[in-house]
Amino acid sequence: MTSATLLPTPPVPASGAAGSALALDRVCKTYGAGDSRVEALRDLSMTLDRGSYTAVMGPSGSGKSTFLHCAAGLDRPTTGTVRLEDVDLAGLGEDALARLRRTRIGFVFQSFNLIASLTAAQNVTLPLRLAGRKPDRERLAEIMRVVGLENRQRHRPAELSGGQQQRVAIARALIAEPAVVFADEPTGALDTRSARDVLALLRSAVDELGQMIVMVTHDPVAAAHADAVTFLADGRLVDAMTCPTADRIADRMTRLED
């Protein structure tokens, strides 16, 4: 859940909360200087718990991508702190930060980013091999079962549909048992049926594996699969919603500047 008082629950401290996996405390991110200075994030505080599923929404230019980049350690805030499992990302050097991203953070993007010459199973286990870890066969079998590709492990990307390729990408994000998976418009390149299947899969990863997921999306239908939706506008957290439905989300998006 978020730490803002916008939710009908007691505020959660922005850091150090029991059970929290990710905490942003008064994060600001600016680009440029003088007349060209842009505030992409403004004093944003948020705490997300282990096993939670949060969608992040907002209009173009609201700060969604910047939020994801800072929360995932792909970019550093100008001020404020980002903590992953009590590790302050600002205190890590570039090598340590890269190791943390490989081992404790999973990524799912709109583009599948699979290696064409590798099989599905090899693509899934690639992050482990890059980190010098030997893939666990039982873990691989479990993940491939969860994503519904237990019979496609030897297929290469060209032999898979778009939806199946995204399932491989999700399995790759899950294989290392990360603290959090960031999904950036994960259904943006898929047809309606494949998108529905991928959203159900992400939901299963939370319910069956206890995975924490943070999904950036513009789609109210996709966001409705989450437990909570956080709304950004002009770099600020302006609202949050629990028990979301597509209709409620769409209605709130039309009034986001209210």
Describe the protein.
- It is a single chain.
- With 258 residues, the protein is of the alpha/beta class.
- The protein has a domain at 51-61 and 94-252: P-loop containing nucleotide triphosphate hydrolases (Rossmann fold, 3-Layer(aba) Sandwich).
- The chain has helices spanning 64-71, 94-104, 120-130, 137-146, 162-174, 192-209, 220-223, 246-254; strands at residues 20-31, 38-49, 53-57, 79-84, 87-88, 105-108, 180-184, 213-216, 228-233, 236-242.
- It has a six-stranded mixed sheet with strand order 6-7-8-3-9-10, sandwiched between helices. A four-stranded antiparallel sheet has the order 2-1-4-5, with helices on one face.
- A hairpin with a 2-residue loop joins strand 4 and strand 5.
- Residues 1-18 have low confidence and may be disordered.
Report a brief summary of the structure.
By secondary structure, the protein is of the alpha/beta class. It has a domain at 51-61 and 94-252: P-loop containing nucleotide triphosphate hydrolases (Rossmann fold, 3-Layer(aba) Sandwich), CATH 3.40.50. The chain has helices at residues 64-71, 94-104, 120-130, 137-146, 162-174, 192-209, 220-223, 246-254, and strands at residues 20-31, 38-49, 53-57, 79-84, 87-88, 105-108, 180-184, 213-216, 228-233, 236-242.
As a percent range, the share of helical residues equals 25-40%
Q: Count the DSSP helices.
A: 8
Strand count, sense and barrel status of the largest sheet are:
6 strands, mixed
What is the ordering of alpha helices and beta strands? EEEHEEHEHHHEHEHEEH
The strand count comes to 10
Cα(first) to Cα(last) distance is 22 Å
Coarse structural class: alpha/beta
Shape: globular
